[in-house]
Amino acid sequence: MAEAEEQETGSLEESTEESEEEESEEEPKLKYERLSNGVTEILQKDAASCMIVHDKFLALGTHYGKVYLLDVQGNITQKFDVVQVFGLYSGEEFHETFDCPIKIIAVHPHFVRSSCKQFVTGGKKLLLFERSWMNRWKSCVLHEGEGNIRSVKWRGHLIAWANNMGVKIFDITSKQRITNVPRDDVSLRPDMYPCSLCWKDNVTLIIGWGASVKICSVKERHASEMRDLPSRYVEIVSQFETEFYISGLAPLCDQLVVLSYVKEISEKTEREYCARPRLDIIQPLPETCEEISSDALTVRGFQENECRDYHLEYSEGESLFYIVSPRDVVVAKERDQDDHIDWLLEKKKYEEALMAAEISQRNIKRHKILDIGLAYINHLVERGEYDIAARKCQKILGKNAALWEYEVYKFKEIGQLKGFATLIREWPGDLYNNSVIVQAVRDHLKKDSQNKTLLKTLAELYTYDKNYGNALEIYLTLRHKDVFQLIHKHNLFSSIKDKIVLLMDFDSEKAVDMLLDNEDKISIKKVVEELEDRPELQHVYLHKLFKRDHHKGQRYHEKQISLYAEYDRPNLLPFLRDSTHCPLEKALEICQQRNFVEETVYLLSRMGNSRSALKMIMEELHDVDKAIEFAKEQDDGELWEDLILYSIDKPPFITGLLNNIGTHVDPILLIHRIKEGMEIPNLRDSLVKILQDYNLQILLREGCKKILVADSLSLLKKMHRTQMKGVLVDEENICESCLSPILPSDAAKPFSVVVFHCRHMFHKECLPVPSMNSAAQFCNICSAKNRGPGSAILEMKK
């Protein structure tokens, strides 16, 4: 969406061009248009703070305390300076002076009915105003004491509001609050990152706060569960985190439209800055979500906006979404079929555009099928795809003689009139005598046997005539890409058993894939036999077979050792590692003959001769790092001893050992064996490293000890605070000993109750008498289950 501060109106269709989707091939789900006319005039002098949407009009509130009534085009119809509740088409009004600022107001969804004259206001309190039978307005406090109320949504008989602590839902029918949903991220300031609420239907509330989204369902409680509980309860059916902070939510069928506030870090200054807000369509799942589309919106002044400055309002009937910011109002709507075709034409996907137009020809208004088809033909001609263009003419031009004449003339002008070949490919075979055409083509080939166009045409004629063997031979001679498709389509595997070498020479990768996918038709044994005289192709086939299944070609693993050694040495070692069927002695013999040191080392170690393998690394490769790595892998003390003995007269080896063996072997064993007076390169640095490693281990141990002590103390304090808290005892609790209610049914009777830290409760007379050795009482249940004693924390007497 391109920003134009000076323009009064402007389409926002360019949003996808400047957004992140300009590089992707995904079609946007929404199209955008800036709300102009009177809105532009208002926001040049004032700033939008809120908006409410109706099917017939809009109400826009500003920072200067004014309310504008607008039509859906953004034209101003009325203006108000005083906050009041009044009927647009009736004479009733309500005026009230409040003792504190009003943050939010919500009117009963059916306020026009005489029985529904109710509305609520939110500030420090949530006040419900309703008109009595004497036409007097009375108010009552629904909630207070948890900070400012900044969001209220009323749907049916349910009111949802958000304050500093969380979200509450109130049932206006039963006059009961039915739930409290606490906010997750308490580190965010509720005034800077306010809660977003929206009702999907009469019983589904969607909550967005910070980067968290919760979908709550209000359900009826079963009569057997009622007791003193509300008749309804709330269940969270979906909960997930988003990538950015949420500024607004709206339902779209079974998906969600989310307006997100984005902060990014500048690559140059490495400072955080306000980026363009995003409008995402997501598919909620029980514990996560799937992104369907995402658009970055360039609203005016986005660089200065905060999360609280953005709002998302929507019109349920028309799937219109209004993105409100202080300096701009943008309307997003679902794209129709004409928009879809526009996008396909813009991306030069003419064939898809033509198909979409044919499917939805009754619904499209701005496009014609013939115009799209002609544009498609022109596009193909411009790209030089003349054969494809000629094929499309038959479908697009139909029986329109004038258009056919024009297109034929155009092809003639550019010298690309290949009528015969195109007709053979495109016209149905029953339109002409196939055998006569075959004979005519063969006669022409006697004069020009290398004419590829005629050969390809003859192969197509053989295919129409179901003479697949001859067609296959021609395709293989031409090395035509459709040869594999022909084999699959007509199941010609019995015809290619003696042509495997030709197929492999043509395209070994496709040939191998085809042969392996059809093992039931051409066996592995048959393929290996056919390729016996071409060992390089035999290797390609067996290698791909081994990659698919390590065990299917086990009978050929011995043969593969030589093939890998000859044609693919880099994959020999991985093959030896993964194969459990190749003979190790044979492999060792081949590797030693060819002086393959790494493979020989691996085979020696696998055969248990680790000392010989280590000796070869040191004597053949002279690589101390690889020798140390090998010794680490084997984790054998004798190997370390051999490595030290071999390295003791080689200063570079000693340096490598000093730098690497500290965590596996005591460096003192090596240092004591160094001859006096021997010059060792970088000895000082190596010794310093050993000491630093030792000091690091000591520091780590001390740090772990400090953390352990601090955690223990913290948990002890937490346990102490927890045990100091009071415990609720009511008539629902029972004595864990006699299983009778812990409190007497007659409150006037005296009683004595003991409550332990483990929350088990007993009548005092049900507990055993403390012994003389220990006056402390312990919970019988926890002591019996070895959970710890849990001494008494509270004794209640009356």
Automatic annotation (TrEMBL):
The main location class comes to cytoplasm
InterPro entries tied to this protein: Beta-prop_Vps41, Clathrin_H-chain/VPS_repeat, TPR-like_helical_dom_sf, Vps41, Vps41/Vps8, WD40/YVTN_repeat-like_dom_sf, WD40_repeat_dom_sf, Znf_RING
Q: Where is the RING-type domain?
A: 735-783
Q: Which Pfam families match?
A: Beta-prop_Vps41 (PF23411), TPR_Vps41 (PF23556), zf-RING_Vps41 (PF23555)
Where do the CHCR repeat units fall?
Answer: 512-656
Where is this chain's protein located in or outside the cell?
Cytoplasm, Cytosol; Early endosome membrane; Endosome membrane; Late endosome membrane
Question: Where is the sequence biased in composition, kind Acidic residues?
Answer: 14-26
Q: Which parts of this chain are annotated as the region Disordered?
A: 1-31
Q: Which GO terms describe its molecular function?
A: zinc ion binding
Which residues are in coiled coils? none
Q: How does it sit in the membrane?
A: Peripheral membrane protein
A single Gene Ontology CC term: cytosol
Q: Which domain of life is it from?
A: Eukaryota
Q: What does this protein do?
A: Plays a role in vesicle-mediated protein trafficking to lysosomal compartments including the endocytic membrane transport pathways.
Q: What does the sequence similarity comment in the record state about its family?
A: Belongs to the VPS41 family.
> In its UniProt entry, what is this protein called?
Vacuolar protein sorting-associated protein 41 homolog
